[in-house]
Design goal:
This protein has one domain. The chain is mainly beta. Strands 2-1-3-4-5-6 form a 6-stranded mixed beta sheet, with no helix packed on it. A hairpin with a 4-residue loop joins strand 5 and strand 6. The N and C termini lie far apart (about 40 Å). The chain has 1 helix and 6 strands.
């Protein structure tokens, strides 16, 4: 019964989110190189998982972005896992060698972490933040 209630709650959130954004969204995206070898197109929202064999880009993503080079131009909510992660607003975690975000609310874990506005934790060899935390700090940078 608890699982059924959880599934209904998740679906309600999905339909509420999609009603607010008139652009189409899909539960799964796959990209070799964007464009032209990507489904959905870069202007879509993925609410589920995006798998990028090469380079993949979407406007918004919720849950998981997995690949070689991940690029979410607006908001990523969840986890980005790749050697290179690029995002406008990160609400969750970026794990990779190079993590770049305009705004981070959560965690950046990598060799080089860069964000404009940090509300969370950066763990890496070099951590950079324009506001919220130290400008450049090795190993651990905190911003709240």
């Amino acid at each position: 019964m608890k699982k059924l209630l959880m599934a209904v709650a998740v679906m309600a959130c999905v339909f509420t989110a999609s009603a607010e954004d008139s652009r189409p969204w899909l539960p799964l995206g796959i990209s070799l190189v964007t464009p032209p070898l990507q489904l959905p197109s870069p202007s879509h929202t993925v609410f589920g998982a995006m798998i990028n064999i090469g380079y993949g880009q979407v406007d918004n993503l919720a849950v998981l972005d997995l690949g070689l080079i991940n690029n979410v131009t607006d908001t990523m909510t969840g986890l980005e896992l790749a050697p290179v992660n690029l995002v406008g607003t990160c609400l969750g975690a970026q794990v990779g060698a190079l993590n770049i975000a305009s705004r981070t609310v959560g965690l950046q874990l990598g060799v080089l972490n860069m964000t404009g506005d940090l509300h969370g934790v950066q763990l890496g060899l070099i951590n950079m933040s324009s506001s919220g935390g130290a400008l450049i700090f090795p190993i651990l940078n905190l911003g709240f």
